[in-house]
Amino acid sequence: MLIGELSRRTGVSARSLRYYEAQGLLEARRGTNGYRAYDEDAVSTVRKIRALLRAGLSTEVIRQVLPCARGEQPGFDWCADLRAILDGELTDLDEQIEALRRSRGALVGLLEARG
Length: 115
Prior knowledge:
The protein is mainly alpha-helical and 115 residues long. Helix content is 61%, strand content 7%. The protein has five helices and four strands.
C-alpha cells in the first residue's frame, strides 16, 4: 500500500510515517516510481508505535522494544533486556514527576509569599 493509504488507515500523517521510517521504526520498499510501498503489517506496526509514544517512550526506546511488542495495545514478549529498558523509563518518569512536584511547591511558595 502507498503512504496515503497507510495514513488513512492509521490516522497518522504521511509526514509522521516518513519520520517513523527515518527513525528505523517502519520499513517501506521503494517502487520503480520511487514511491514508498508498505506491507499490510505496517498498519499494526504504526498502531504499536503510536501506543508506545502515548506511553511516553522516545523513538530511540521504541526502536529497542518494538521487536518485542505484540498486538496493537501492545503487549510484549519479554525479550532480553526489555524489563530493564522499561523499568529505566519508569524510573526516569518518576524522577521527572518528582522534579515537577518540587517546582510546583516552589511556585506555590512564591505565590503565598506575595500575600
